[in-house]
Amino acid sequence: MTIAIIKYGMGNVASVQKAIKKMGYHSIITDNAYEIEKADVIILPGVGSFKKGMENLIEGGFVELLSKEVLLNKKPFIGICLGMQLIATYGNEPERVKGLDWIKGEVIKIKSDNLRVPHLGWNTITVKNNNKKYKEFNKEDYYFIHSYHFLTENPNDILMTVDYGDSLVAAVQKENIHAMQFHPEKSQEAGIQLIKKILDSYA
Amino acid sequence: MLKSRIIPIMTFNGFGLVKTKGFAKNPRMVGNAVQAAKVYNNRNVDELVFLDIYASDKNRKMNLQLARLIINECFMPVALGGGIKTIEDIHDLLAIGADKVVLKTKIIDNPEFIKEAAEVFGNQCITIAIDAEKRDDGNYYLYNRIDKKIELYSFLEKIKSYPFGEIILTSVNNDGMMNGFDIPLVKEVEEIIKVPIVVSGGGGELEHFKELFSTTSIEAVGAASIFHFTRYTPRDLKLAIASVGRPVRIVEKQYIPEN
Predict the structure, then answer these.
(1) Which of A29, A133, A175, B169 has the most CB atoms lying inside 10 A of its own CB?
(2) Does residue B255 fall inside a structural domain?
(3) Residues B97 and B68 sit within 8 Å (Cβ to Cβ)
């Protein structure tokens, strides 16, 4: 199985590759359309602003390619942090821009009167109670660092939530699309096991 | 609930890890950076900070080869700092896998650099190191070795709305003394700064950590001496912090990578 980590100039791709290697999977860091089409799984990591992320996806010619692979060919997709936010309909960092629109919803600033923003550090996630496949990860701690959060239109798309003032979306899942706000590659064993669970189900 | 973070701060002199007292220039050698990173990873610390503390003095860049070896040992977030002067420097550190960069001397000289950096990399990966020195007049100043006299609180008021994701607040007077944190300083700063604050400087006993977490609302603490010179582990500190009612992340499972 070949895993393509998309290189689009938005941050820390090396850590994602390192974590995947620990699980015994082979991955490539690539911006090449042919390699992405050939890959069995696509991972979109990323840190930075939503607007810059979308600009880079558009300039790199990734938008149609990724939408075709993920929506049409149903290729397994894992989005991490900004890579999760970009699949929303709209983002707002720093201003309102259109996203990939794979999962309906909008990424908005974390509202806080007495909480520090960014939401930074290890926080406990809750897996949606009817989900059997990911039940084992309920109440695990993951590493978060974000100032914006994904407000999904359809609650059925939510896989995990995290409490920070409000209950925020920590992970979404819809068919072959898996995406998380936290950084599994930075969350030690809990993170490695989660990614492994997703990859193993496609291996 | 968001957990209180325990963050070992590894300070480097260009050859090995060192530990200063009061930021004096005759630090003790305390070991090898890569080995220390490996131990901290195995102990499931929440994050790691690695600083080349003389880089700006010596006008040198971070040793990228060494930093890469450190990061390779870590499956938790790592912040790197020392000698960062340009956007290119930040790019180099993020490219080898750093999650955050720590800016200090450059932003004392030119606070506007925070904005430049955040525009390119996003504010969450920009950490600001604030070294607070209490002088004989009873006031706090921004410690630096570029001969600038800057009053601490007015500097913080000036930059508080700048786009950075976190600050590391260190008491220069208490650094390495292991005699407790400067609580009045922390209380003052947490009123001004609204991003997460990592407090460091002075933690030498479990009681110091209990005092810090029971009298302030900060969520992260940096420590070095207590790990180098006592038998306490990060887990001991977490249990102490938990005992005053603050949430911590205790990992019972031990993950040993195969390769």
Answers:
(1) B169
(2) no
(3) yes
CATH number at residue B98: 3.20.20.70
Q: Which two tokens stand for residue B25?
A: 């220039």
The model's pLDDT over B90-102, given as tens digits with 9 standing for 90+, comes to 999 998 889 999 9
- What is the domain count for chain B? 1
B34 domain residue, yes or no: yes
Q: How do residues B144-166 score in pLDDT, each as one tens digit?
A: 999 999 999 999 999 999 999 99
Tell if the CB–CB gap between A145 and B77 is shorter than 8 Å. yes
Q: Provide the token pair at B219.
A: 């969520």
State yes or no: is A185 an active-site residue.
yes
Cβ pair B74, B37 in contact under 8 A: yes
Residues 113-152 of A with CB under 8 A from B: 116-124, 141, 143, 145-147
Question: Please, which residues bridge with residue A109 across strands?
Answer: A148
Stated length of chain B: 259
Domain, as residue range, for B174: 5-243
The Cα B139–Cα B153 span in angstroms is 9
- Alpha-carbon gap, residue A171 to A158, rounded angstroms: 6
φ, ψ at A98 (rounded to 5°): -75, 140
Query: What Cα–Cα distance (Å) separates residue B77 from each residue in A110, A182, B100, B125, B135?
Result: 22, 12, 8, 11, 34
Interface confidence, given as ipTM, is 0.94
Q: What are the structure tokens assigned to B131, written together?
A: 């070294």
- Residue ranges and CATH numbers for the domains of chain A are 2-200 (3.40.50.880)
